[in-house]
Amino acid sequence: MPTNTYKIFNKDCVGLSGVAPQSIDALVTDPPYGIGFQAHEWDKSLPNKQIWSDCLRVMKPGAFGLVFSAVRLMHRLMVDLEDNGFIIKDVLFWVYLNGMPKSRNVGLNIDKKLGVDSKIVGKYTYMQGYKKGGADSYTNPQQKNKYKPSSSLGKKYDGAGLGIKPAYEPIILIQKPLEKGLNVAENVIKHGTGALNLEETRIPFEDGEGEVGHNPHPKGRVAANIIRTETMDDGYDKFFTVPKVRQHADDYNIHPTLKPVSLMQHLVKLLTFEQQTVLDPFAGSGSTGVAALNLQRNFTGFELSPDYAKIAQKRLKAVQLP
Ligand SMILES: C[S@@+](CC[C@H](N)C(=O)[O-])C[C@H]1O[C@@H](n2cnc3c(N)ncnc32)[C@H](O)[C@@H]1O
Prior knowledge:
This protein is of the alpha/beta class. The chain has helices spanning 50-58, 74-83, 106-114, 152-156, 184-191, 261-271, 287-294, 306-320; strands at residues 6-9, 24-29, 59-68, 87-95, 119-126, 142-148, 168-175, 226-228, 240-241, 277-280, 298-302. Helix 7 (287-294) runs parallel beside helix 8 (306-320). It is globular, with a radius of gyration of 23 Å. The model is unreliable at 130-137 (pLDDT under 50). Bound molecules: S-adenosylmethionine (SAM).
């Protein structure tokens, strides 16, 4: 079996120095969302736009990219990508059930503003985690007071809030234009890029499920632009399913926005064929790289933080150990 190569540059990705023009087959990246996630400095603003023209330069004509984003700022990111020469092809939704609404009870805020004490109506167990009591829950639950508004205006607005439950993360699908004058087949023949790998990413039919269409494909359906974290009993389960990963899932991996390797594998597979090279300029702890190496693709990553770059090195090395 051929050995795949990887490189992690522990430096600012802007400029993509060390990466040759037209050497990259796909871009798969989870950049800063610009929303200051958990007050992390690196997430305070969207990436410097220049990185997207750098990416365009190092990618082969027709190469695809997938760029994670946040609902609030994906429009800006899409404009940045388009302004720097990419074609916007689609937006994938990674849909989950366990998103926490960032909200508050406005009725209680009104009580406070009016100088009225809200009523304590009981206690609840606060747990920052996913499945209560399940393997994913955190260990130190705290007892907190449960309040209800006391003022009449507070009661009127009891439960009113500021946001609905977030239930998806958008992932923008982009493409570098084909080489001028070439059609898709000519571009694929010359560069190996310009087509999605739909065969390797088919979603198998479920047991007992009737096959679809007059000429059903033995491997299942073509992957959709929705990816879900778990199957749902709503009769609408024809999607690729990837559970979220708990932070600190590996004791040494402290990255706060770790993406599941199975999700990254699905994305890498969709954009590439074996032995091609994937770029992630915002590599974090290296999940894209692990996915690429697991799939016999090569990987080039950049990560600004020495701590995260070290974790990425360790994870990538582990994939290649016999
Ligand atoms: C959202 S995280 C990626 C997490 C990754 N998907 C994982 O699973 O570990 C984005 C990363 O980009 C890094 N970063 C931010 N600006 C950068 C820059 N200009 N050059 C290189 N890395 C940068 C941050 O340090 C952070 O680790």
